[in-house]
Amino acid sequence: MSLLEHDRGPPATAAESDGSGVNAAAVAGHVKALLFNPKAPTVTTGLAMVPGLVEVHQCLMDLRGYLRSFSRGDFSVDITTRGVVCGMVKSLQANLNHVIWQMEQVEAGDLTQRVDFMGDFSAAFNSMVFQLDSALTALRNKERELTAITEELRQEVEKREAALRALQQSEENFRYLAEHDPLTGILNRRSFLTQAELQLARNTIMDHPSSIAIMDIDHFKQFNDTHGHPAGDRALKHVAEVSGSILRPNDIMGRMGGEEFLFFFSKTNIDQARRVAERIRERIADSPVPVDHGQAIITASIGVVSFTAHREGQSDGCGVLEQAMAVADEALYRAKAAGRNKVRTGAFIS
Q1: Sign of torsion over alpha carbons 45, 48, 51, 57
Q2: d(CA 266, CA 321)
Q3: Of 257, 251, 338, which is closest to residue 299 (Cα–Cα)?
Q4: Are strands 260-266 and 252-257 parallel, antiparallel or unpaired?
Q5: 220: confidence class by pLDDT, cuts 50, 70, 90
Q6: Dmax over Cα atoms in the chain, in whole Å?
Q7: Of 256, 268, 267, the residue nearest 192 (C-alpha)
Q8: pTM for the complete prediction?
Q9: Which of 6, 109, 124, 304 is most enclosed, with most CB atoms within 10 A?
Q10: Cα–Cα distance, 155 to 163 (Å, whole number)
Q11: What DSSP string runs through 64-105?
Q12: Cα–Cα nearest to 200, from 322, 303, 302
């Protein structure tokens, strides 16, 4: 026996029947099944004879289909059934689709969306959006604060790096000034001796000869008195540049003081050292110095000495250099005594 047949109850009386043999209980049972049963009933032949029942059955079937789509989250179904109930379902569909659209706008970043047509849901939705807006505003404020802090830190790091570079540059400048002659830019006497001593130690290990030369600009005081001290400074720098252009990478040049210059020629015997000294002397004599009213010729006298230090004397390299410089200075004196613009050599064996 089917549910409808069970719901029909006893055979209808004349008062209960509609003339088709179907009583009101059967009609109510069919409608009840449409509303409550998972599986929709079919319209029997007898029920089909009840006026309007087929239309009610189809309307309820349509409603079941619409609501089934809604329950699955599909609000795109086309509601074509007419009537007040279907009209309310269609209105619910429109509201839900509008809320979905608003949710999409919120997802895209539009936090101005508000719902005012769905009662408690509207309050919950609006509260959620407000809290999201407040949270994002707080995050943006924190982001701005962090950005400002990051920028301050970056600027502080840049300042410290700039200060460190300035300090390093300052240290390099001080080191340079401590090691070089401020006028000519070549080594001062102390740095010259330090580097020459290191080079001499290497030469001594390899039993290579070394040479020392002392050069003095001729009549430099007279040059200053005639052309002025600025011209004299230009002459000193000119001599340093001309002499440096002749030296090899391993040769060392320094300013002893005043108009005197020092040279250390590595791996050079007396003949080689004399030839280098002659080239320096000739280049200076052939290179006029600019002065206020034209050019002036200057010359230089040079004393040269060569030596080979014994290995046991390595620890006293500075003493060897001082002795060699004394011999070169004597040779310089003889070059001046011979008329200046000359190169003279001295003998020295360590």
Answers
A1: positive
A2: 13
A3: 338
A4: antiparallel
A5: very high
A6: 164
A7: 256
A8: 0.56
A9: 304
A10: 12
A11: HHHHHHHHTT---------SHHHHHHHHHHHHHHHHHHHHHH
A12: 322
